[in-house]
Structures are given as C-alpha cells and as structure tokens.
Specification:
- The structure is a homodimer.
- The first copy, chain A, has a two-stranded antiparallel sheet with strand order 1-2.
- By secondary structure, chain A is mainly alpha-helical.
- In chain A, strand 1 and strand 2 form a beta hairpin.
- The mean pLDDT of chain A is 93.
- Chains A and B meet through helix 3, helix 4 and helix 5 of A and helix 3, helix 4 and helix 5 of B.
- Chain A binds a DNA duplex through helix 2.
Chain lengths: 130, 130
DNA sequence: ACCTATGCTAACCTATAGGTCAACTGGTTG
DNA sequence: CAACCAGTTGACCTATAGGTTAGCATAGGT
C-alpha cells in the first residue's frame, strides 16, 4: 500500500487555482467524485488530474455538461465490452472534429489579428520616420 | 453611387445563422450599429461581415464584451493618430497571445482525445480478430 | 380601407457558472 | 472546556446570452 497524497478541498483549490465553490459545483455536476471522510471531501492525485482537465477544457470554452461527457470517455476507455469501445470511438471522433473546427476558427481569427497588428506597426513606423 | 445590398434583420438572420433576437442583443451591447429607416434596422454588407466575425469569435468561446473590444480594433485600424496606433498594436498583441494560448490548450486536449480514440480502436480490433 | 409581412420595444423567463453568506459539525490543541 | 480550524449544506444573488411573448407601428399589395 503506497501512501498516496490526499488533499482537502481548500488545498486542492490552492493547487489548482479553482475556488472551493467551483470544485463543489463540479462535483454537483458529476465531474468529480471525491471520497468522503466524516462528510468532508478528500481528493487524490487522480482527482487532481481530473480537475486540471476540467479547467483546461473550461479555458477553451467547453461547458461543464460537455466536459462531463468528455471525462466519461476516460473512465470508459478501459472497459473492454465492444459496445463501450464503439461508444468511446464515436464520441472521441465527434469531440476531435469539434475541436479541430474550433482550432481552425482560432487560426482564422489569429490571421486577421496579425494583419491588423502588422499593418498598424508599419503605419506607425512610416509616420515616425517621416 | 453603387447600389449596395441591404438587408432587413430577418434576412440577415437567415444569412448568418443567428436569430434576430441575438442580432438585436449584439447591437444593444455595441457590437453592431445598423442604420435605421423608419425605426427599422437596415444592414449593409459591412454589417454582415462584422456579424460573421462576431459569430466566429463566439464559436471560439469569446464573450460579447471581449468581442466588442476586438471589433473596435477594426474600426480604429485606419485612424492615423499615434496614440490610436499604439493602442491597436498593444491590444492586438494581447489578443494574439491569448488566442495562441487557447490554441495550445486545444492541441493538448486533441492529443489526449486522439490517444483515447486510437487506443480504443486498437482494442476493438484486437478483440474482433481473436 | 384592410390585410399581411416585417419590424419595434419592453417585460419576463431560462440555463450556466459561479460568489456570498449563514448556520452547523467535527477534530485539534492550548 | 473553549476556541479555532476546515469543512458541510442550503439559500440567495449576480452576470451572460439569449428565448418567448405581448402589444404597437409601418409599408406594400389588392
């Protein structure tokens, strides 16, 4: 038995950058399921990893509901039943397509921003050495 | 005087995929400023382009407030005063950095999804030709 | 003159993602 | 034992991004 690190909610909050309130919310939405000790939530390294996945997914604009189904893919990955595997394959394909499209849109927006940025720099330079 | 195409709100909605309600909301938030004819909103091709920028920005997870400042960059781009140019250069740099970071996170998430996806495919194949 | 299409504002309702606050519990330690 | 964490639930509040509905106005067609 390895003594794995365990965290209280405030501690996890500090480590992750999320607030305790947000962490509880994620649990209420089914994204986290910490063990309980005398009613208090106790988090493991696995929970910590899950939480960073959640925060990263949030940062790219996913809703908690989406993230939930996303996280379920991790859980089911190991399960060997064919139906499960097929489900995982289908859902990951969807998510991948969606993220690729999002990425493409970011690239378009980036291209336009760079145009404006460079153009303005040129203009400023021209105006200065005149 | 070129006769440019003009659109009513329902028409623009149909063309863009947004609802009239959403379009009015964007105006209320300062993202669009259509001309008025007898009180009714009239949109030009320029408004149409702006709207697609808005929708694209929304699709990548920007809030309307962010998009607003973003759109102002387009407006100010042409203005030649130095302060304006400096402002535009600074803000576009910020936005660019932000989007690049977002893009990187999407890439990380994509990498993980692809691992799960491919792994599951392998598993399924292994199980089938056994 | 009347009807229909299109549009307008205003008011209200919804879901999402939390912040804030109150009241309570359980363990530790001086 | 009292005081103090750290934590709990529950209730209420907020902002964002719209949907829905109602009531009124206007223009065009017949």
């Amino acid at each position: 038995m390895e003594a794995q690190p365990l965290y209280g909610i405030t501690e996890l909050a500090a480590l992750s950058g999320a607030t305790p309130r947000a962490i509880r919310l994620y649990e209420a939405k089914g994204l986290l399921k910490p063990r309980r000790v005398n009613g208090a939530r106790v988090y493991t390294a696995v929970d910590r990893t899950r939480l960073s996945l959640i925060l990263r997914a949030k940062a790219i604009g996913s809703t908690l509901a989406e993230i939930r189904t996303f996280l379920e893919l991790y859980g089911r990955e190991g399960e060997g039943r064919e139906k499960q595997l097929e489900y995982v394959i289908a859902r990951t394909a969807e998510k991948i397509a969606e993220l690729e499209s999002r990425r493409a849109k970011i690239d378009e927006t980036l291209a336009e921003l760079r145009l404006i940025h460079e153009g303005s720099k040129q203009r400023l330079a021209a105006r200065r050495d005149r």
